[in-house]
Amino acid sequence: MVESRSCVQREGVYRWFSTLTSAQRAEFLYGLLDLCVPIELRFLGSCLEDLARKDYHSLRDAEIKANNPADLSGLTNVTDEVVRSKLLVSLALLGTDNREAAGVLYRTLTHIDTVINNYGLALNDGRTEEQFLLLFTMASNHPAFNFHQKQVLRQQLDHIQDILQ
């Protein structure tokens, strides 16, 4: 009886999780991982590495660009949907210890107030809203950013969420 109840609860969680946006899924998973003990994290890291291995070759060129500050410095026009997509890919593929590239991304992302106020970027457009929420969720949790940068990026995320409400 307990086992079937557990399965029902698990299915409910799966259904609930599938309805979340990318930003909400990333935030939720990060929170769950933060609750794990080191041995669980190492195991999950091994599982993630195995899952990611299948896409290694197709993402290799993008990973090189994502970790090259010179390539990232050209991605400054966050009003452009293509640039935002490239920033999302770059954040996903950014190395955990690449502080220099993280600094370039940080400088780009912290000018968002100016972009919103000066260009009247419509954040309430579904796709734009989702991209900005995911960008700042990923950045504010990414290990390549230092503590202060994460705090500022989290404030930016909170500001964007306030604008959207």
Please describe what this structure looks like:
By secondary structure, the chain is mainly alpha-helical. Helix content is 78%, strand content 0%. The chain has helices spanning 2-18, 22-35, 38-53, 56-66, 69-72, 81-93, 99-109, 112-119, 126-141, 147-164. Helix 6 (81-93) runs parallel beside helix 9 (126-141) and helix 9 runs antiparallel to helix 10 (147-164). The longest helix is centred in the C-terminal third of the chain and has 18 residues, at 147-164.
Quickly give the structural class: mainly alpha
Number of E-type strands: 0
Low-pLDDT segments, ≥5 res = none
| Number of alpha- plus pi-helical segments | 10
Topology order in helix (H) and strand (E) letters:
HHHHHHHHHH
Biggest sheet, in brief? Answer: none
Instruction: Give the radius of gyration.
Output: 18 Å
Would you tell me the overall average pLDDT? 88
Globally, the shape reads: globular
Strand content: under 5%
Quick structural summary:
The protein has 165 residues and is an all-alpha fold.
Keywords:
mainly alpha, single chain, 10 helices
Please render the helix and strand layout as text.
Blueprint: H1 2-18, H2 22-35, H3 38-53, H4 56-66, H5 69-72, H6 81-93, H7 99-109, H8 112-119, H9 126-141, H10 147-164
Helix pairs in contact: 2-9, 4-6, 6-9, 9-10
